[in-house]
Each structure stands twice: as C-alpha cells, then as structure tokens.
Amino acid sequence: MEKPNPPERTWYERVFELSDLTFSNPELKAFLDVDQYPDWVTNVMIELSRQGLHLTPLRGMAALTPKKLGMSLGQKCANLYAIGNQVQAGITALENPQTAAKAVAYIERLGRKKEHPVVASTIQALDTTGSLLLELANGSDEFEKIVHLAFKEALNQTDYGEAVQFFQGFAQGISSPGILPGKLAQSTDATPIYQKMYFHWQEIDRLHTVIELYDFLIKVGVSKPMLGDIERLRTLCKRIGYSPNKKNRPPKQKP
Predict the structure, then answer these.
(1) Which has fewest Cβ within 10 Å: 2, 21, 105, 164?
(2) Taking CA 11 as the corner, what is the angle to CA 168 and CA 5, rounded to the nearest 5 degrees?
(3) DSSP state letter for 228
(4) Is residue 120 within 8 Å of residue 216, measured between CB atoms?
(5) Around 61, how many Cα atoms within 13 Å sit in the side-chain half-sphere?
(6) What residues have CB less than 8 Å from 250, skipping those under 6 apart?
(7) Is 221 exposed, middle or buried (0-12, 13-18, 19+ CB in 10 A)?
(8) What pLDDT score was predicted for residue 92?
C-alpha cells in the first residue's frame, strides 16, 4: 500500500523554514547545536527567546500563521536595527580618545586577571556574544533576502486575508523590538542567572546538587542579592527542568 503524500506546505511555512539561518563558526557549536542540548538547556533557551522575541517565542511558533511569520521577521529586523545602533554607538564612543583609553585599560585589566573565575566567565561571555554578533552580521544580507521573499510571497497571494495578516504582523514586530540597550526587552531578575547557565551549561550539567550550582553561580559572578537564597534557585531549576547530574556520584557505601 502506497503511503499518502505529505500535505503541501504553505507559503508562510516555507519562508519560515528559510528564516532559521545556519551558523558557520565551529566554536559556536556548543551554544547553537540544539540537538546536543540537555532538556533543561533547551528550556533556558526557550525562556530567553520569550524575553528577546516576546511576540514569537519558540514555544509559540508550533502553530504557524501568516501573522506569526510577519511578527517573527519584523521583530528580528527590529533586533538587528537595535544591535546595529548599539554597535555604531560603541564605535562612535571609541573615536573619543579618553573612552578608547578606558576601554583598552579595561581589556588589559581583564587580561591580567584572566585566571579569576569571574573574569574568565566575563571573557567567555564577551567572546561568545561577539562571535554570535559577527555571525548575525555575516548573515544579515541573506536575512534581508528572506524578508524580501516573504513580502513578495505575501503580495502574490490570492488570499487577501493572509497578506493582510502577514503585513499586520510585520508592522507589529518591527515596532516592538526584543533587544533594548544592554538587555532583553522582557528581562526579569532571573535573566542574568539564565544567561550564566546558558554560557556555562556544559560545566553545570556535570554538577551533582543545587548547592553546587549555587556555589558555581556565585563563583562565576552572579551576586548573592541577585541569586537570592537556595530555595529560590531550587524553584528556578524546577521551572526549567534542571536536575543535577547524579551519574558521577560515588556509590553509597553499604553499612
């Protein structure tokens, strides 16, 4: 018996699949290869995507519509504009000799203390973030083509309602950026904790207890007031499904 042909994908499903750009830097594999994530890291990414792409978070894209495609592309455009503006502001600031001298001095201080856990964590986050931004910049031309394709596809539709939904979504997305200067638009007091857990997920996945996680986060620069007490951290861990790895625990000795 022949298997039925799969249903033909809609125009907005085809465009959405194209909008998921691939990254070429092998050093980013640990942070972008979703297939190798433990479930809890996936949940951290979902939470951060909710804060940075709050109109179209990862969990909200299961049932795709023309409006959701428009909002997704629009908000990504808004984020690229915001990132570009921040980078340009940084370049302009560095043209001031005093600001440039302070930046060089800061980098030199980091270099002298690079073995310190907090400094090492900061350097790792800066390196990874810089690589991600560079990849985004390299892919911006390709993304622009995808946006133009989406506009063309929407305008070519015989279903006027789908075109209206798409452009309404795009207008909403581009006018509601997910990235603001220095933070995600929907940041909470838990965001810095999630970000540290993301950047250090491989080390954290080898820990044995929530107490070890608490001590590790303090070591890499999360302040105690920001982290709160151990019970708050247990609640955050439960929310993202993080259960400390018990595989490496030594077996209990029989009495």
Answers:
(1) 2
(2) 145
(3) -
(4) no
(5) 21
(6) none
(7) middle
(8) 81
Question: What pLDDT is recorded for position 65?
Answer: 92
CA pair distance 5, 7, nearest whole angstrom: 6
Copy the structure tokens of residue 67.
């409006």
211-223: pLDDT as tens digits: 999 999 999 889 9
Q: How far apart are the C-alpha atoms of 206 and 150, rounded to whole Å?
A: 43
For residue 180, what are the β-bridge partners?
183
Q: Is 205 exposed, middle or buried (0-12, 13-18, 19+ CB in 10 A)?
A: middle
**Encoded amino acid at 169, one letter:** G
Non-local (6+) Cβ contacts of 236 within 8 A are 190, 193
**Residues 9, 14, 19, CA angle at the centre, nearest 5°?**
155
Q: What is the mean pLDDT of the chain?
A: 81
Q: What is the pLDDT of residues 136-162, one digit of tens each?
A: 777 788 889 999 999 999 999 888 999
d(CA 197, CA 191): 10
Spatial separation of the C-alpha atoms in residues 239 and 87, rounded to whole Å: 34
DSSP 62: S
Mean per-residue pLDDT for 38-52? 89
Rounded distance, CA 144 to CA 33, Å? 23
Does 255 or 18 have the greater pLDDT score? 18
Strand runs (DSSP E) across the chain, as ranges? 179-180, 183-184
d(Cα 240, Cα 47) in Å, to the nearest integer?
8
Say if residue 177's pLDDT is above 80: yes
The tokens 């504009």 sit on which residue?
81
Q: What is the pLDDT of residues 71-85, one digit of tens each?
A: 999 998 998 888 888
Q: Token pair 């950047």 is at which residue?
A: 199
- pTM of the predicted protein model: 0.71
